[in-house]
Amino acid sequence: MMMYKLFLDDERIPEDVFWINIPKGEYVIVRTADEFKSYITEHGLPSHVSFDHDLGEDPNGYDCAKWLVNYCMEHDEKFPPYTVHSQNPIGKDNIIGYVENFKRVFGESTLPTFAEYFNITEKKSIHDPVRPGILKRQIKGKMTCSKARALKAKQKNKGNNTARASQRYINYHC
Description:
Helix content is about 40%, strand content about 10%. It has helices at about 35-45, 60-75, 90-105, 115, 135, 145-155, 160-174, and strands spanning about 5-10, 25-30, 50, 80-85. Helix 2 (about 60-75) runs parallel beside helix 3 (about 90-105) and helix 6 (about 145-155) runs antiparallel to helix 7 (about 160-174). The chain has seven helices and four strands; from the N terminus they run ββαβαβααααα. Strands 2-1-3-4 form a four-stranded parallel β-sheet.
């Protein structure tokens, strides 16, 4: 890994980014996806990458993140530390999700998995509810058949997730 930091953005410079903390220091600034790919191909992986999503044209920052994941796989390299400074919340989440899924597969992710985040334990049997958290958030204390029936009866929309989860609990446990 080369000792340079890469900043992908079509308009801003690193000093303009104040809404998140990016590592201090000098950055190589690239404005397009083609510049991003060319610079990494020529100089190797950076020590840090800061992504913007909207580059004013296609391809975007998400495409650059996907390209970098493929580059890391082809060259048997770890994904470099990164930040996403994009102010596009959906684009930012897409980049983070894609990179973290890649890192999770290779055991590098520092973010919790879905199950860890929602504190979902491993299923013990096929009859256990898939997402018990839906009901646990609605009912205080131990889940019982009478509590599940009462919760289902309170639901105005019988097709919502809570009503469906209550019915699953009733089907499997009552």
